[in-house]
């Protein structure tokens, strides 16, 4: 089983080692006037001046999103200064499994603005940007952790586990974006952004049917799974076309796509403004994808019978021979067969819809905002409501603090934005990890992100 989990999880973790759900821009920036990167949340936002970003640091975003924390896997041992896994005998099954959800989600995002330029022309504000984006997710049912912890139920002669719908996916691409926004009148502003996408690497693997049957007389495993990867993935095979190794190494353009952002802002009066935006509406088409599958594989183990542990005169051992045979059968259970034909795989982008309202007081030195968002196109749909308090004490500085509640967890965040004429610098987080163990391990859902950016104004 160890090797099966390696195949199942490898595609989903590929991009984490080099790069590490959302728009890949802080939601806290939405109401932050004077920030040059707000157009990534709503293309109708305009910048106070022209600008050019510092290479690779115009908008650097890193985020993770999970409905479980490391506290589900690591627990304090009998010695409070040491940590043990949830499989340790000192942790009861009830306690160990209480931290896991029916569907466990671990996602990671990366966004890098390589360089972007903003300028005023053609009756409005314009942006041109080159970005790199990475979205990775691993999705695990609770039954896999129940099986690992409890095995066969000691109170039952027969135990069955359905460990289906294990899934891992990673999508990595470059983006060339062209945006334009303009004022229609004193109250209404609109904007749009066209994105040309160049695929770098994509992989998806899924165990859509894995069942384990356990009884006093025998164990049986049945499995059907699949693997698909974009051009650039190297699937090393044996003579019978079985995959021996899988990794990305020949990077290049592996696909093409298009994306579109649309947005509008309406100023109801001097104090109240409402807005609506849809970002990353589009698709990515991955060309020449390689496929592999493992269909209806079965393994049955009825135990060892009439086997001695003593070595024979020739040095062999009946128990070792039988164990090797069992291991060979298990390896056959998780072997993938590579298909000769390649296919084109089209995937939707992670589209996000945002609706917001903002009310200003004290000549707009302070404002309060409400931002609702929904992310579509991923294995799971996310909804979130964020309330913000925004402060603009000086022309060169503003800040925002927020509280958010989503269908993953609630959190607090803050962002600082400095824009004293020639430069613009921001740093902040939408989500802080709230609860830690004594060993500084997050025990709740690991929803956390951070972003910073630097640009030069002109």
State the shape.
Answer: globular
Distance between the termini: 59 Å
CATH architecture: Beta Barrel
Beta-strand level of the residues, as a percent range? over 45%
Question: Helix proportion of residues, in percent?
Answer: under 10%
Rg: 26 Å
Strand-and-helix sequence, N→C? HEEEEHEEHEEEEEEEEHEEEEEEEEE
Mean pLDDT: 83
| Number of DSSP E strands | 23
Total of domains: 1
Given this structure, which CATH class is correct? Mainly Beta
Q: Give the low-confidence spans.
A: 1-22, 303-310
Largest sheet: 19 strands, antiparallel
What is the oligomer described by this structure? single chain
Instruction: Count every helix, treating DSSP H or I runs of 4 or more residues as helices.
Output: 4
Descriptive tags:
two-stranded antiparallel sheet, 19-stranded antiparallel β-sheet, Porin
Detail the topology: elements first, then pairings.
Elements lengths: L1 H12 L37 E3 L6 E7 L7 E3 L6 E3 L7 H5 L5 E19 L2 E18 H9 L7 E5 L3 E18 L4 E28 L3 E11 L3 E5 L5 E6 L6 E13 L4 E30 L16 H16 L3 E2 L4 E6 L3 E10 L4 E10 L6 E13 L2 E10 L3 E9 L4 E7 L18 E10 L1
Antiparallel strand pairs: 1-5, 1-23, 2-5, 2-23, 3-4, 5-6, 6-8, 7-9, 8-9, 9-10, 9-13, 10-14, 11-12, 13-14, 14-15, 14-16, 14-17, 17-18, 18-19, 19-20, 20-21, 21-22, 22-23
């Amino acid at each position: 089983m160890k090797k099966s989990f390696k195949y199942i999880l490898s595609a989903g973790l590929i991009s984490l080692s080099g790069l590490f759900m959302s728009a890949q821009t802080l939601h806290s920036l939405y109401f932050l006037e004077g920030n040059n990167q707000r157009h990534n949340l709503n293309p109708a936002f305009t910048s106070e001046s022209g600008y050019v970003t510092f290479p690779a640091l115009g908008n650097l975003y890193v985020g993770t999103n999970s409905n479980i924390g490391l506290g589900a896997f690591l627990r304090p041992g009998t010695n409070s200064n040491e940590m043990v896994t949830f499989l340790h005998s000192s942790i009861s099954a009830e306690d160990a499994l209480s931290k896991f959800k029916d569907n466990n989600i671990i996602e990671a995002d990366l966004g890098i603005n390589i360089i972007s330029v903003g300028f005023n022309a053609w009756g409005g504000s314009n942006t041109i940007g080159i970005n790199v984006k990475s979205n990775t997710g691993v999705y695990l049912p609770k039954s896999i952790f129940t099986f690992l912890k409890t095995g066969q139920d000691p109170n039952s002669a027969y135990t069955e586990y359905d460990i289906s719908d294990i899934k891992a996916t990673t999508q990595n691409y470059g983006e060339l974006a062209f945006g334009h926004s303009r004022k229609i009148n004193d109250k209404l502003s609109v904007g749009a952004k066209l994105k040309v996408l160049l695929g770098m690497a994509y992989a998806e693997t899924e165990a859509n049917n894995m069942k384990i049957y356990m009884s006093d007389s025998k164990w049986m495993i049945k499995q059907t799974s699949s693997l698909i990867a974009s051009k650039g993935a190297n699937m090393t095979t044996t003579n019978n076309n079985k995959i021996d190794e899988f990794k990305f190494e020949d990077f290049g353009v592996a696909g093409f796509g298009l994306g579109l952002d649309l947005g509008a802002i309406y100023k109801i009066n001097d104090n109240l403004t409402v807005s609506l935006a849809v970002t990353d509406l589009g698709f990515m088409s991955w060309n020449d994808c390689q496929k592999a599958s493992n269909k209806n594989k079965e393994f049955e183990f009825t135990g060892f019978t009439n086997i001695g542990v003593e070595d024979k005169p020739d040095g062999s051992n009946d128990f070792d021979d039988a164990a090797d045979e069992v291991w060979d059968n298990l390896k056959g259970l998780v072997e993938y067969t590579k298909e000769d034909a390649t296919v084109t795989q089209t995937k939707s982008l992670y589209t996000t819809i945002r609706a917001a309202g903002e009310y200003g007081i004290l000549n707009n030195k302070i404002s309060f905002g409400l931002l609702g968002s929904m992310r579509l196109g991923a294995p799971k749909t996310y909804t979130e409501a964020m309330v913000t308090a925004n402060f603009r004490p000086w022309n060169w500085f503003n800040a925002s603090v927020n509280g958010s509640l989503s269908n993953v967890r609630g959190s607090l965040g803050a962002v600082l934005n400095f824009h004293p004429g020639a430069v613009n610098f921001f740093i902040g987080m939408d989500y802080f990890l709230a609860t830690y163990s004594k060993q500084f391990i997050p025990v709740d859902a690991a929803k956390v992100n951070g972003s910073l950016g630097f640009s030069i104004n002109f």
